[in-house]
């Protein structure tokens, strides 16, 4: 079984930039961009005014939300390096702090929505984390449908997502977001990949996004509200 990573392991990953330097890319060029867009779209649909992001990473989603200029934002991560990178990316260090998702003290800010993407699959105590979120707060989360070295779990269906998190969250919507084949989805990166793989039809199909959600991998983005804590 995959072991949960420690903060120093994530410090090293973020310092190195990840595969294809994905954590250093502008958010529009990042393979996470489809995920970020879906989260931002969900927040707009829910009329969110203020967001707390649990696991902000290097600030890709924060940067998108700041560019849109619609919501008040704060975010934290337990990787010191990630928080430093996010602060530099957005240019507003006051928006970020180092904190552990398992510490209830990190949820005392004022906000009407929690965003938690690329987090719950990495920690054994995912349910304990959600249990610390305030009752009634809007929640927008994601979990993957694929395995990775730092994933302690992944999900094969919307039903599995609802089964694990439905007791804590009143899940109103689950959306599939397909993961791009390339970590760098910039135009130049696509052109190079298409040229290098022009004689490999199956790889071309993957680059062009023609694979199924199951084959390509992706995220289940689910949204709803934190259920009231039991008396």
Protein described:
A seven-stranded mixed sheet has the order 3-2-1-4-5-7-6, with helices on both faces. Helix 5 (126-131) links the parallel strand 4 (113-116) and strand 5. It starts with 6 loop residues before the first helix and ends in a 5-residue tail after the last strand. It is globular and about 60 Å long. The chain has a single domain (7-176, 216-226), classed as 3-Layer(aba) Sandwich (Rossmann fold), CATH 3.40.50.150. It is of the alpha/beta class and 231 residues long. The protein contains nine helices and seven strands. Helix 1 packs across helix 4 (80-90). The protein is 34% helix and 19% strand.
Task: Give keywords.
Rossmann fold; 9 helices; 7-stranded mixed β-sheet; 231 residues; alpha/beta; 19% strand; single chain
The strand count comes to 7
Give the ordered list of helices and strands. Answer: HHEHEHEEHEHEHHHE
Structural class: alpha/beta
The oligomeric status of these chains comes to: single chain
Residue stretches low in confidence (pLDDT < 50, at least 5 long) are none
Fraction of residues in β-strands: 15-25%
What's the domain count?
A: 1
CATH class category name: Alpha Beta
Mean pLDDT value: 95
For the record, the CATH architecture stands as: 3-Layer(aba) Sandwich
Strand order of the largest sheet: 3-2-1-4-5-7-6
SSE layout and pairing:
Layout: H1 7-16, H2 33-45, E1 50-54, H3 60-68, E2 72-77, H4 80-90, E3 96-98, E4 113-116, H5 126-131, E5 138-144, H6 158-165, E6 169-178, H7 187-196, H8 201-207, H9 213-216, E7 218-226
Parallel strand pairs: 1-2, 1-4, 2-3, 4-5
Antiparallel strand pairs: 5-7, 6-7
Helix pairs in contact: 1-4, 2-3
